[in-house]
Structures are given as structure tokens and as C-alpha cells.
Amino acid sequence: MATFVDRVVLHVTAGNGGHGVASVRREKFKPLGGPDGGNGGRGGSVVLEVDPQSTTLIDYHHSPHRRADNGKPGAGDERNGGDGGDLVLPVPEGTVVKDAAGDVLADLVGPGARFVLAQGGRGGLGNKALASPRRKAPGFALLGEPGESRDVVLELKSLADVALIGFPSAGKSSLVSVLSAAKPKIADYPFTTLVPNLGVVTAGAERYTVADVPGLIPGASQGKGLGLEFLRHVERCSVLVHVVDCATLEPGRDPLTDLDVIEDELAAYVTDDSLGGRPLSERTRVVVLNKADVPDARDLAEMVRPMLEERGLEVHVVSAVAHQGLKELTFALARHVAAARAETEREAAEQPRPRIVLRPKGVDDSGFLVRRENTPDGEVFRVVGERPTRWVRQTDFSNDEAVGYLADRLTRLGVEQQLLEAGAVSGSTVLIGPEDDAVVFDWEPTMSAGAEHLTGPRGTDLRLGESTRKTRGEKREEFHSRKDAQTAARDELAAERRAGRWTGGEDDA
């Protein structure tokens, strides 16, 4: 079972917004007190946050599908629905977020760094919020918007100053264990190290981190062995240390050949330019000839040392087991790390700080486009735009008044005029929304909901009109007027009967 995972595909869905509600206040002596429907709550967002206690992405390897809470619907008496809770996903420091196309969305460095991966949907408005002087009694409410859904790739790239690289069983884990307080697993067989091990080293006033990268083999940059999976952990390191096994008994292995093979793999590996990393072949490199406690190995190290120095490489002969040459190596690495940090600061100071211009996308962006398309089912007109799509998602199509409200909004926005200019006629097929989930209309110009034919103009109720209660005398006068009218009608019928102008049916004979 995997215990360390540094690359996962994550499927996240933010929470949907709660629906608004259509409600009418009812009070004593005032059965229709006006609309009082509350708004729906906002859906929860999915957020990535750097957690110092997190070291692996294994939780998302076993559970790659994550969803935030939905917002609660509104209620009567102007009660708004509660917001859905945000889903905060802890990730290790150094996690890189990429979209499906491989573009970097965020590089999470620093404790507490956050990135909103999927935004929750907004809640729908209740009929109280939709009421206006012209629309006193809306009989509908808006639906909540669906939350965003995204598929992203999370890659963990260790944050270390020095990377120990080399063939399996070259002594990298042993070197980390004696240079720092890290206690990696050590054994005399290939691929003992299956995960990067990090340790903190102190040399005088300098502190730096060392990463033990799992063993590389020829072809690692093309995916052979474990190298390709863990070369990404070298990208952030400023100093690369070649740990060479001088006591190996494998045929065809010697320090110079091992060094050339690893150098070729480093040169073939393509770093992520979007993170500002230099090619691995341009990093500061130090060669450590290990296992010098073995007599034959020490003789071999002393023999190849001048050859490596002729290449311009700094060479150290050490023994992790016998603790030989470690102090010199520790301070030499501290010197290189300090130089790399100073160079980084100098480059940052020399380069003018770019002026950051934020151009956020308008929530109520009125821009839209009408496209005329030919499909296998015939000619259609597609309306593309943020506001028309959002309005369609908020509309309850089972409510005629809500559909009419949508038609009014689209007309005021200019969609109907654009459709006419694009060549749409009565009965044309109009699509509004994304291509995979669009709402289809059989378009009729100047569309109406029909509700206004029942109760007057849309959004009004005659029962809520301005009126005063009748007094007792007015009610008594109205009662006597009805009685007098009934008496007069009976007297008129009786007179007509006596005159013979009105007779009954056959039953009267």
C-alpha cells in the first residue's frame, strides 16, 4: 500500500447556492401582508491550504472526489438560508496546482497559504428581495446557482536547499542520517528509499535543508525506475550533491561512469518553467565520494578525485559510517547555499518589481454574444454570456411568472434585439448556457408569461391594492340596498305573472 503520494488528480465540486422562497406574510386582520420570502444561502467553496503537519497527498489518492456543503434555502418571515461551510483541504508546503491542460494555477509556499479551487454558488433571491414599487407581490423566487466543478492535478515538490542524488544504495540515506536528525530507513538493497527524506542541517550560523532523493537509474527521465516520479523534488533545490558509491561490486560501475549517467538524466529532465526554475544541469553541483572507510574504496576515490576536479567539480571524500569528512562537507554545502540565497536576493533586487494590475471579472458583466450555428438538428442561435447564463440557471421554469420575469430581463439586456439582428424568427431554436448543459427555447418575440392576464401586470396582486375598510354604517347601507333590490325584483316578477306575460312550465298546468 502506498504511504507517500506526491501526485494526484483531484475532482472537486463547490456547494450549490440555496433557493430563494416565495412567501406572503399573514397577520390578523391582514391576511395578505406582502411578500416575506428570504434569500438562499451561499454554497461552500473548496479551498486548498498549506498545513505544516501534512507531508503527503495520500488522502486525496484514496479519496479523489471532494464536495463542499450546499447553501440552505430561504424561508418565510424574511429568514435567509445559512451559508454552506467551506471545505478546506490541507496540503503539504510546496504543492503545485495545475489544471487539466498542465497550466500552473497556484504554487502554495508558506504555512497558511490558501487557494480557492472552486467557488461556491450564490444563493437565490426570495420574493421579498424581488419586490419593487412596480412589482409589489412577486409570486416567484430565484433558484440558487450551482457551484463550480474542477479537475486539477496536485504535485508535491519538496522545499529543500540541497538534494542528494545518485544510484540506489549509494549511501544517500546514511548521509542524511548523520548530517541531520532525520532517521530514514537504511538497508543494503536497491530502492530502500521509496520517499524523499528531508533533514535540517546546522553549520555555524547557517541552517539549510537536505533532501534524500530516491535512487536514479539510466532512463529515469523517460520514466524508468523511481527517478521520474521524484526528479520533481529536485526542481526547487539550489545545490545538487552527487553521492557516488566507491565500494560497489556491480560490473560496469565506477565513479566516473555513475556520475556521467546521472548528469545525462539531469540534463534530459525538463523543469517547469512556469515556476521559474532553472534547468537542473545549471545548478551548483558537488561530488561526494562515499564509503571511504573501505580501503579499496578510498584508494579508488583518491584516484578519481583529480579527474573530477579537472572538470571543475568540488569533490569531498567522506564515510557516513565512520563519520569521516562530514564537517568539511557540511560547511561547504552551507557556503554554496548562502551564495545561492544571496544570488536570489540580488536578482530580486535588480529586477524592477512589476506593477500588479488587477482586472477582476465583473460579476454583472453585461457582455453577451449571439452566434448562429448549424447543427445536425438544424440551425440554432446560441446566446453566450455570463449574465444570460446565470439568469437561466436561477429561473424556475415550472412557474409562469418566473419565466416571464426572465423574458423581461433578457429583453432589457438586449438579447431579443440581437436575436432579431442575427436572423432569428418566430419558432427559431435558441440555446442559452454552456454547450454541454444549455437550456433550449422555441423563441417567440416579446415573450410573456401569461400570469398578467390573470391578475393584472406581472408581479402585482389586486388584493394588495390600496383600500380602506368599510365602516359599520356603510356595511348596513350596502345590506339594505341589496334587500331593497331583491324586493323590487320580486314585485316586478309578480306583476308580470299577474299580467300573463310570464308563465311556468308544464308542471304549473
Automatic annotation (TrEMBL):
<feature type="domain" description="OCT">
    <location>
        <begin position="360"/>
        <end position="445"/>
    </location>
</feature>
<dbReference type="GO" id="GO:0042254">
    <property type="term" value="P:ribosome biogenesis"/>
</dbReference>
<dbReference type="InterPro" id="IPR027417">
    <property type="entry name" value="P-loop_NTPase"/>
</dbReference>
<keyword id="KW-0963">Cytoplasm</keyword>
<dbReference type="InterPro" id="IPR006074">
    <property type="entry name" value="GTP1-OBG_CS"/>
</dbReference>
<dbReference type="InterPro" id="IPR036346">
    <property type="entry name" value="GTP-bd_prot_GTP1/OBG_C_sf"/>
</dbReference>
<feature type="region of interest" description="Disordered">
    <location>
        <begin position="56"/>
        <end position="86"/>
    </location>
</feature>
<comment type="similarity">
    <text>Belongs to the TRAFAC class OBG-HflX-like GTPase superfamily. OBG GTPase family.</text>
</comment>
<protein>
    <recommendedName>
        <fullName>GTPase Obg</fullName>
        <ecNumber>3.6.5.-</ecNumber>
    </recommendedName>
</protein>
<feature type="binding site">
    <location>
        <begin position="319"/>
        <end position="321"/>
    </location>
    <ligand>
        <name>GTP</name>
    </ligand>
</feature>
<comment type="subunit">
    <text>Monomer.</text>
</comment>
<comment type="function">
    <text>An essential GTPase which binds GTP, GDP and possibly (p)ppGpp with moderate affinity, with high nucleotide exchange rates and a fairly low GTP hydrolysis rate. Plays a role in control of the cell cycle, stress response, ribosome biogenesis and in those bacteria that undergo differentiation, in morphogenesis control.</text>
</comment>
<feature type="binding site">
    <location>
        <begin position="212"/>
        <end position="215"/>
    </location>
    <ligand>
        <name>GTP</name>
    </ligand>
</feature>
<feature type="binding site">
    <location>
        <position position="173"/>
    </location>
    <ligand>
        <name>Mg(2+)</name>
    </ligand>
</feature>
<feature type="compositionally biased region" description="Gly residues">
    <location>
        <begin position="34"/>
        <end position="44"/>
    </location>
</feature>
<dbReference type="Pfam" id="PF01018">
    <property type="entry name" value="GTP1_OBG"/>
</dbReference>
<feature type="compositionally biased region" description="Basic and acidic residues">
    <location>
        <begin position="59"/>
        <end position="81"/>
    </location>
</feature>
<dbReference type="GO" id="GO:0005525">
    <property type="term" value="F:GTP binding"/>
</dbReference>
<feature type="domain" description="Obg">
    <location>
        <begin position="2"/>
        <end position="159"/>
    </location>
</feature>
<keyword id="KW-0342">GTP-binding</keyword>
<dbReference type="InterPro" id="IPR006073">
    <property type="entry name" value="GTP-bd"/>
</dbReference>
<dbReference type="InterPro" id="IPR014100">
    <property type="entry name" value="GTP-bd_Obg/CgtA"/>
</dbReference>
<feature type="binding site">
    <location>
        <begin position="166"/>
        <end position="173"/>
    </location>
    <ligand>
        <name>GTP</name>
    </ligand>
</feature>
<keyword id="KW-0378">Hydrolase</keyword>
<dbReference type="GO" id="GO:0005737">
    <property type="term" value="C:cytoplasm"/>
</dbReference>
<keyword id="KW-0547">Nucleotide-binding</keyword>
<dbReference type="Pfam" id="PF09269">
    <property type="entry name" value="DUF1967"/>
</dbReference>
<dbReference type="InterPro" id="IPR006169">
    <property type="entry name" value="GTP1_OBG_dom"/>
</dbReference>
<feature type="region of interest" description="Disordered">
    <location>
        <begin position="28"/>
        <end position="47"/>
    </location>
</feature>
<dbReference type="InterPro" id="IPR015349">
    <property type="entry name" value="OCT_dom"/>
</dbReference>
<dbReference type="InterPro" id="IPR036726">
    <property type="entry name" value="GTP1_OBG_dom_sf"/>
</dbReference>
<keyword id="KW-0460">Magnesium</keyword>
<feature type="binding site">
    <location>
        <begin position="191"/>
        <end position="195"/>
    </location>
    <ligand>
        <name>GTP</name>
    </ligand>
</feature>
<feature type="binding site">
    <location>
        <position position="193"/>
    </location>
    <ligand>
        <name>Mg(2+)</name>
    </ligand>
</feature>
<feature type="compositionally biased region" description="Basic and acidic residues">
    <location>
        <begin position="460"/>
        <end position="499"/>
    </location>
</feature>
<dbReference type="InterPro" id="IPR045086">
    <property type="entry name" value="OBG_GTPase"/>
</dbReference>
<feature type="binding site">
    <location>
        <begin position="290"/>
        <end position="293"/>
    </location>
    <ligand>
        <name>GTP</name>
    </ligand>
</feature>
<feature type="domain" description="OBG-type G">
    <location>
        <begin position="160"/>
        <end position="338"/>
    </location>
</feature>
<dbReference type="GO" id="GO:0000287">
    <property type="term" value="F:magnesium ion binding"/>
</dbReference>
<dbReference type="Pfam" id="PF01926">
    <property type="entry name" value="MMR_HSR1"/>
</dbReference>
<dbReference type="InterPro" id="IPR031167">
    <property type="entry name" value="G_OBG"/>
</dbReference>
<dbReference type="GO" id="GO:0003924">
    <property type="term" value="F:GTPase activity"/>
</dbReference>
